[in-house]
Design brief:
This protein has 444 residues and is an alpha/beta fold. The chain has helices spanning 15-30, 49-61, 77-89, 100-110, 167-177, 193-203, 233-238, 243-252, 266-272, 287-300, 303-314, 320-326, 336-345, 352-358, 361-375, 384-398, 402-414, 422-429, 431-443, and strands spanning 2-5, 34-39, 68-72, 93-96, 125-128, 135-140, 144-149, 157-159, 182-186, 209-213, 216-217, 283-284. The protein binds one RNA strand of 76 nucleotides through helix 4, strand 5, strand 7, strand 8 and helix 5.
RNA sequence: GCCGCCAUCGUCUAGGGGACUAGGACGCCGCCCUCUCACGGCGGAAACCGGGGUUCGAAUCCCCGUGGCGGUACCA
């Protein structure tokens, strides 16, 4: 199999596009075939070299490698011109100056469901001749057969007046020349397929196999955008999601097999993925589930791996001991700093409500007792076990509930009521720093 | 408007005529664990869009309706 992924290089690799890339990759890898990249860059306005590079970078980050490409439509313009002239010579296509308004007028006269047929002229855009009334069947690996009648189809413009090729024309030529066997793309291309089928016919070649993926929407059913948290792979990366988790989540967004499992390794996915089992319904992107899944993947990393990932993400070093005690509390790399930043930057989050609740008269009294117990511990005895014993003794002595002692300490150290385990936090912070922070809290 | 695609819990899905008191996962709720938040464990609420057929029997097949989405560019 020769499968091709054709991103539209607008800079960001949209999540829907990432899923299409992933499915293409599954099919290519699963069949021992080849993944070819084809860049849809005939619209030079937005397809800058920088944008193309950003897409490739996102693909590499997701670890979706391609064997060939990128094929650039712009670079293939002479080939497109050659085929165009051929179709013109064979009278399979014709030039016309008819505009969109002319097409509208034509329909007003002949009926809205009648496709536009133009009159050949010496100049103008090139339109492909569409058979008068014939049934064009799109065989789709996911949807089965869809029939389009050519009467409804306008003669499509395949090249501008200046001779440059348009998408529906270029894509067929490029895919054929690249010997593509499988075209897997978004459902928004389904209606374009009959036009491409006509181009293949004019070329006198067999079309590839098609599979049209259902579209992806945001949680509200609308088009996915930044408003929904993230719309591109680049944004997911910035928010600290792992490539493996994204691959797993995206694989399941529109596909599932009889096993119905949720956490599946990429290797297993490649083996199991079956394009014919892809869902026909549009799916909604649910960040909640991705977060959960990402948390599962995060917790499967070794301490060293997670530390390295977090140090790269935060740009800080020396995170290991803190990572060790907070790893089960984060779902993305971005969750780490808000939770554990206080270890390094001090209790900067001034949570007034927390101070009010836990550092009132009772709290300060408990904190004072806790300070005494902690200060009694030797420098080299400031361990989780010893701190545990010492603090629980304070709880006993005060005939208090554990949290009545622990929470004031937590607020003094972290500035908030949420942190890793209090004994672990104290041990990692060390005796001196812990006492310093407690004194600061008591003094304020 | 015209052409086309789609329709199972809030979300992602399993299901392909009897195995369905419709299964799993996220989320939600409750309980357990517990120093907070989590993690983990246990339990719960929660769906076949509507109407007609076909059939002994329909979530599953057909038709209509409704709804959602896509295409309808000298964009891709």
């Amino acid at each position: 199999m020769r499968v091709r992924f054709a991103p539209s290089p607008t800079g960001a690799l949209h999540i829907g596009g990432a899923r299409t890339a992933l499915y293409n990759w599954f099919v290519a890898r699963g069949s021992g075939g080849t993944l070819v990249l084809r860049i849809e860059d005939t619209d030079r306005e937005r397809s800058t070299p920088e944008n193309v590079e950003q897409i490739l970078d996102a693909l590499r980050w997701l670890e979706l490698d391609y064997d060939e490409g990128p094929i650039s439509q712009v670079e293939r313009s002479s080939r497109h011109a050659e085929v165009l002239q051929q179709l013109l010579d064979q009278d399979l296509a014709y030039r016309t100056t008819a505009t969109a308004e002319d097409v509208k007028a034509y329909k007003a006269q002949h009926g809205a469901d009648k496709g536009f047929r133009g009159r050949p002229e010496a100049e103008g855009a090139v339109r492909l001749r569409v058979p008068e009334d014939e049934e064009l069947v799109v065989h789709d690996l996911i949807r089965g057969d869809t029939t389009f009648r050519t009467v409804h189809l306008d003669d499509p413009v395949i090249a501008r007046a200046d001779g440059t090729a348009l998408y529906n024309f270029a894509v067929a030529i490029d895919d054929h020349d690249a010997r593509i066997t499988h075209v897997i793309r978004g459902e928004d291309h389904l209606s374009n397929t009959p036009k491409q089928l006509l181009v293949y016919r004019a070329l006198g070649v067999d079309p590839p196999a098609f599979a049209h993926l259902p579209l992806l929407h945001g949680p509200d059913g609308k088009k996915l955008s930044k408003r929904h948290g993230a719309a591109s792979v680049q944004e997911l990366r910035a928010e600290g999601y792992l490539p493996a988790a994204i691959r797993n989540y995206l694989a399941l967004l529109g596909w599932g097999d009889a096993d119905d499992e949720t956490i599946i390794t990429t290797d297993e996915l490649v083996k199991r993925f079956d394009i014919t089992r892809v869902s026909k319904n549009p799916a909604r992107f649910d960040v909640q589930k991705l977060r959960w899944l990402n948390g599962r993947y995060l917790r499967e990393l070794s301490l060293d791996e997670l530390t390295a990932a977090l140090e790269e993400h935060t740009g800080r070093t020396g995170l290991r001991s803190v990572v060790e005690i907070s790893c089960e509390k984060i779902q993305t790399l971005a969750d780490f700093w808000p939770l554990a930043g206080f270890f390094f930057d001090g209790p900067t989050t001034t949570d007034a409500k927390a101070r009010e609740q836990w550092l009132g008269d009772d709290g300060r009294a408990a904190l004072g007792d806790a300070r005494g117990a902690l200060a009694a511990l030797p420098e080299d005895g400031f361990t989780v076990e010893e701190i545990d014993v010492a603090l629980r003794a304070v709880v006993q002595a005060r005939e208090a509930k554990p949290k009545q002692v622990f929470q004031p300490v937590r607020v003094a150290l972290a500035g908030t009521t949420v942190s890793p385990g209090i004994f672990e936090t104290l041990a990692v912070l060390g005796r001196d720093e812990s006492l310093r922070r407690i004194d600061a809290a008591l003094g304020g």
